[in-house]
Amino acid sequence: MAIVFGVVALWFAAGGNGEDAAGRAIGTDFVSFWIASQVALAEGGAAAYDIVAHGIAQRTAFGPGDGYVAFFYPPVFLMLCLPMALLPYFAALGLWLGSTALAYLVMVRHWLGGSFGSAALTLAAFPPTLLNAGHGQNAFLTAALFGGGLIAMRTRPWLAGLLLGLLVMKPHLAILLPLALACRGEWRTFIATGAAAAGWCLLSWAILGTGAWAGFIANTGLARSTLEDGLVAPAKMVSMFAAMRVLSLDVATAYAAQAAFAAVGAAAVIYAARARLPRPAQDAILAAATLTVSPFLLDYDLTLMAIPLAWWFAQTQRRGFLPYEKAALLALFIAPLFLRTLATAASLPLAPLVTAGLLLGCWRAALTASPSRHSRAASAR
């Protein structure tokens, strides 16, 4: 952990003047969020989705830097960013990362057990934590909503729906949620999540206006081109689609591979529900399976790995480690630190192996946690 923090500190110290060693503003992606909220407050919600206006405001505030950082998020997320426009950039960045990191810590501590101090040390050493903080991204928030919603679902389904519904701000992380809730028969949470998602959208429409939603929809084609044409380097991503593109396969083949990988994740979620595995085990499998679904998944989105890893580790504390589990948990824990480098420097896109290994490991741990007839039958199969 000390080595990782030392490298990060040197990276930022080498830049100076609020920039990292590559000449980009510290917080990189948060630049896009902060500028979008500035533009929205000054000129209206629609202007935040005007690529020209957003780009001019970004260059005016930060200079040409390392290129334009686009804003493709739905107006629900822009609505959450609006208060950040009232603060100077670095104050807003600090508030954003501090508040969302606290929510992430509270959520992971529940899954991991133990004290807040031990959970904080664990997350401080978890590479996706540093990746998200370095980018100024929203993965602390999305992981906190995902994990917090699953926790609340056990006793407070309507609160769970409110949290899970807010994932409409980044909907590709919620693709498997309706499937999982339906297969489990969690109909109150299913209805609450749908109603909350609609409510968040309506609230953003009331605050930002129709123009914001029209601009967001108009930019979906550009967002797709960003994925398919490599405007965001595939080596930065951790999806099966990106892995195929790193290996220089065509877009159609990459989509086919992604669909097959997503089908495996969906099948795991369905079978976990049909086998009546313990609910926390089903939640861990759902979180792991979510990382197999979307073709547009960045390495900082692997903050979601903390949920299945924490649940799996907690299982080992109750029953002891199986022979392979210490090595598997350690490898999965540190792997995100090297995925982008291996994909960039050596054209080795190993991220799908990591997410598949996490899903398989949680499945095996779930079977050992459930002595039921269903679990024994599933293990035999």
UniProtKB/TrEMBL annotation:
<keyword id="KW-1003">Cell membrane</keyword>
<dbReference type="Pfam" id="PF09594">
    <property type="entry name" value="GT87"/>
</dbReference>
<keyword id="KW-0472">Membrane</keyword>
<dbReference type="InterPro" id="IPR018584">
    <property type="entry name" value="GT87"/>
</dbReference>
<protein>
    <submittedName>
        <fullName>DUF2029 domain-containing protein</fullName>
    </submittedName>
</protein>
<keyword id="KW-0808">Transferase</keyword>
<keyword id="KW-0812">Transmembrane</keyword>
<feature type="transmembrane region" description="Helical">
    <location>
        <begin position="349"/>
        <end position="367"/>
    </location>
</feature>
<keyword id="KW-1133">Transmembrane helix</keyword>
<comment type="similarity">
    <text>Belongs to the glycosyltransferase 87 family.</text>
</comment>
<feature type="transmembrane region" description="Helical">
    <location>
        <begin position="76"/>
        <end position="98"/>
    </location>
</feature>
<feature type="transmembrane region" description="Helical">
    <location>
        <begin position="285"/>
        <end position="314"/>
    </location>
</feature>
<feature type="transmembrane region" description="Helical">
    <location>
        <begin position="187"/>
        <end position="208"/>
    </location>
</feature>
<feature type="transmembrane region" description="Helical">
    <location>
        <begin position="246"/>
        <end position="273"/>
    </location>
</feature>
<feature type="transmembrane region" description="Helical">
    <location>
        <begin position="160"/>
        <end position="181"/>
    </location>
</feature>
<feature type="transmembrane region" description="Helical">
    <location>
        <begin position="110"/>
        <end position="130"/>
    </location>
</feature>
